[in-house]
Amino acid sequence: PSHAVKRGTRYRYYVSQSLVAPGSRKDEISPSTPKWRIPAAALEGLVRTRLVDLLSSSAEIMEACNGAVPDALQQQTLTRAAAMLGQRLQNHGDDGLRRFLTATWTRIDVHPNHLTVAFDRNRLIDALRRDDRDAAPSGAGEVRASDTKLIQPEDCMVLSIPATLQRAGNE
């Protein structure tokens, strides 16, 4: 996130790509493309709530794994690690959330009535396996160079999060 300091208070916010590098992708960005500045706490709160729901649901975790974990014992271990991670994300603040997202997500898109968060299924499974082995709050967030490969469409999982944007300010 970006930030601004006003009268000694630091305000964190996320900025749409079209505002970060205007004109760098002229083919993709039209004048009607929405340009967002969203308070970081609000965005992170929505994402955290949805992730905790996902990680707390054995059915959603198995769906997210998409058959990549056929063994019942491994499935049980993964769902247990997911539930533990969900509890930590709920209780331990933004650091754990950022580490988890850095390790697993590929893209977050903001739409007028919802957010979408795209995850790499393989990175999610790897993060949960590492988290189960490490059993430490920071276990899910280590990103290795081998994790930066381009993901295949079949490995992508998209979460949709209902949200309503409220306009504020004079732009």
> Roughly what fraction of the amino acids lie in strands?
15-25%
Mean pLDDT: 78
Order of helices and strands: EEHEHHHHEEHE
- Report the sheet with the most strands, covering strand number, pairing sense and barrel closure: 3 strands, antiparallel
User: What is the SS-derived class?
Assistant: alpha+beta
What proportion of the residues is helical, as a percent range?
40-55%
- Low-confidence regions: 135-148
- From the alpha carbons, calculate the radius of gyration and give it in angstroms: 17 Å
**Which shape, going by the Cα principal axes?**
globular
DSSP summary, beta strand count: 6
Secondary structure elements and their pairing?
Layout: E1 2-6, E2 9-15, H1 17-20, E3 37-39, H2 40-56, H3 58-65, H4 72-91, H5 94-104, E4 105-111, E5 114-120, H6 121-134, E6 156-162
Antiparallel strand pairs: 1-2, 2-3, 4-5, 5-6
Helix pairs in contact: 2-4, 4-6
What brief labels describe this structure?
alpha+beta, 6 strands, 6 helices, 3-stranded antiparallel β-sheet
Please tell me about this protein's structure.
The structure is a single chain. The protein is globular and about 55 Å long. The chain is α+β, with helices and mostly antiparallel strands and about 170 residues long. The strands form two sheets. Strands 1-2-3 form a three-stranded antiparallel beta sheet. It has a three-stranded antiparallel beta sheet with strand order 4-5-6. About 45% of the residues lie in helices and about 20% in strands. The chain has six helices and six strands.
